[in-house]
Design brief:
The protein is an alpha/beta fold. The chain has seven helices and eleven strands. Strand 4, helix 3 and strand 5 form a beta-alpha-beta unit. It is elongated, with a radius of gyration of 19 Å.
Length: 248
């Protein structure tokens, strides 16, 4: 098996290290790194790798996915900020008959956290006295706000709590609506990725929290996803892989 790591920043470098430790061949594609095997995807022969792990940026990700579709390359998409185009991407993938798995976060711990939040939300939905909110911390080098993980958490909460129908990520200078879920963000120093959900009533507060100590969980999950997607056809989310793992 040979994977192409598209985007060789800190995450890409950790993915490469983990893949090599697992005896997986690695090809690096990055226009801004001296260690890259290729600067651009179009410079790489179509048979250079059979699975791509993409951690690039929203400006190039749709074009990258088109390249994977045109060249019959299965893909793991860890890039965030493209979800408004998800229907277009799904159609591209299904029409080209490749396999693609995407996630806002490939960490096993985060995806278990998603399951915990989903189960807790179904319980909280029964008890109207609890209000709901979320907050995320990240280091000050992170490019997007809110995080893709925060958006995923907000969607889980809204999908399972009837009294919340709209997530608000911006600063609020008014009274928040009863149907609104406020999910705030902070960028600070070297703070690791931290996501919290709060269920609050007059009597008490329940807090669920996930703290990422480093990028290892994200990178390891992406490598695992590259193995999982090999040989598959179709458009998959991380929940499809998790469902299979939990079922097994």
């Amino acid at each position: 098996m040979r994977i192409g790591i598209v985007g060789y920043g800190k995450m890409g470098q950790m993915i490469a290290s983990i893949a090599r430790d697992r005896n997986i061949d690695v090809v690096i594609v990055d226009p801004n790194h001296d260690d890259a095997d290729h600067s651009l995807l179009r410079d790489a022969p179509s048979d250079t790798f059979n699975v791509a792990i993409d951690f690039t940026n929203p400006e190039v990700i749709i074009d990258n996915i088109r390249f994977y579709c045109d060249n019959n390359i299965n893909a793991v998409i860890g890039t965030t900020g493209w979800y408004e185009n998800i229907n277009e991407v799904r159609e591209l993938v299904e029409r080209s008959n490749i396999g693609l798995i995407w996630a806002s976060n490939f960490s096993t711990g985060v995806n278990l956290f998603f399951r915990i939040i989903e189960n807790a939300s179904k319980l909280i939905n029964i008890f109207d006295e609890y209000d709901i909110a979320g907050h995320e911390f990240h280091h000050n080098q992170k490019l997007d706000s809110p995080s893709g993980t925060a958006r995923s958490i907000a969607n889980i909460l809204i999908n399972n709590i009837d009294r919340k129908s709209n997530a608000v990520f911006d600063i609020i200078d008014r009274k928040i609506g009863d149907d609104e879920l406020h999910f705030s963000s902070t960028r600070l120093g070297s703070v690791p990725g931290t996501h919290s959900v709060f269920f609050d009533s007059d009597a008490d507060t329940i807090e669920l929290k996930h703290v990422a100590r480093n990028r290892m969980g994200f990178a390891s999950g992406a490598v695992h996803a590259s193995v999982w997607i090999t040989g598959k056809k179709g458009f998959f989310g991380i929940e499809d892989m998790m469902n299979e793992l939990i079922k097994d």
